[in-house]
Amino acid sequence: MKKTLFIAALLCTAFVFSQEKTPPKPFKTELYGFARVDYSIDTRQSAQVREFHLNLWPLDKKIDSKGADINASGASNFLSVVSRLGVKASGPDVWGAKASGVLEGDFFGNTEQSIALFRLRHAYAKLDWEKTSLTFGQTWYPQFIPEVFPGVANFSTGIPFNPFGWATQFRLDQKLSNQFKFSFIAYKDREFGAFPIDGKQNSPVYNSVIPAMHGKIEFRNKSVIAGLGAELYPNKPLIESNGVKSNETLNSTSVLAYFKYNAEKFHIKAYGISGENLHHLVMLGGYASYANGTNPVTYEGIRTNSFWLDIASNSATTAPGFFFGFTNQDGTSANTSALGIYGRGINSTRGVKDIVRASARIDFKQNKFRLTPEIEYTAATHGNTQKDLSISGIENKVANFRATVSAVYSF
């Protein structure tokens, strides 16, 4: 009898435990980042950001009273402001999805005046099911592909040939098969917003009720990543002009394609984008305003085209790499003179017609330390701004050589 009762008690205990829910996963956090220092030296003055840390293109000729080119003057600097700190977190599942989040920043600052101050890069949460994932918060623009961007030593990461920046967004990723994925992103600019006419940061973005909408389809296997994307980017630069309410909006479009082939000993990356008003992606171009009968003004985006190629070794210790990029701006379709021009690399008299860049680097790596010397050549064609905002006429071709050494210790 006692033996029977003992077996029954064991069975009851086993039944109770079998009915208990699996304990929730514990919260986990992981600190990551790197300490980095860069030394660079240039042969010419350039359009630049943060005390010459990020060079965009060599400046046009500026001739003084003695016939000398003032901008044919070099520069150099030591900086550690791109050192980075971040934290990753994960915890119990949410509605059957794996839940995670990222908070990350660096010391680049949001403006020239705030250099060396901490700035926000990423701040998002993600829910990941078997075939569907949702991302909420600030992370990369959909045009920036984390697995397909230039591996240059220069912190530019390919700017102004490759889109760059972060935006607050809602993102849906849906697996269509083991190799194909569709993504839809709705976002609003933050740090790299459209050029404001009224001087209020990002006003063309938040004045637009409709967010930017981006869709792309991507193919992946063990060796290849390839994708195609398209975007509608609505802006409303002004809500009034000369005391009159303005309902005019600027609806710009863009398309892009990217590719990566990863072999055992090397990899190749390529990227191309063409669109209007790509200013927010830290690229050439922007938009212009025009007189428009019954409405105060109307707008049209300036078209920009860009392409780059990056080839590098996959060696774990010594990895040489080469980058080539080309970008230009093609103006607008308008046949009347613009009231105002709001963009990067163009004003009412002069503009950047095109930019070419070639660079070579070698990554020396051991454990978590990397030392990278790089030589970079950037040439720009400056010309007169035409009625349709194309660039031609009196052209100056100028070039800058930059030598960089970057040292990074990651953790």
List keywords for this structure.
411 residues; mainly beta; Porin; 16-stranded antiparallel β-barrel; disordered N terminus
What's the layout of helices and strands?
Layout: H1 2-19, E1 28-42, E2 46-49, E3 54-58, E4 75-79, E5 84-94, E6 97-106, E7 119-128, E8 132-140, E9 166-175, E10 180-189, H2 203-206, E11 212-220, E12 224-235, E13 240-241, E14 244-245, E15 250-262, E16 266-276, E17 285-292, E18 295-301, E19 303-313, E20 318-331, E21 340-344, E22 350-366, E23 369-385, E24 391-410
Antiparallel strand pairs: 1-4, 1-5, 1-24, 2-3, 5-6, 6-7, 7-8, 8-9, 9-10, 10-11, 11-12, 12-15, 13-14, 15-16, 16-19, 17-18, 17-21, 19-20, 20-22, 22-23, 23-24
Largest sheet: 16 strands, antiparallel, barrel
Strand content: over 45%
Q: What structural category characterises the helix and strand content? A: mainly beta
Provide the residue-averaged pLDDT: 92
Tell me the Rg in angstroms. 26 Å
Extended strand count: 24
Please tell me what the overall shape is.
globular
Q: What letter string, H or E per element, gives the SSE order?
A: HEEEEEEEEEEHEEEEEEEEEEEEEE
The CATH class: Mainly Beta
* CATH third-tier fold name: Porin
The largest beta-sheet arranges its strands as 1-5-6-7-8-9-10-11-12-15-16-19-20-22-23-24
For the record, the CATH architecture stands as Beta Barrel
Compute the number of helices: 2
Rounded to the nearest angstrom, the distance between the terminal CA atoms is 64 Å
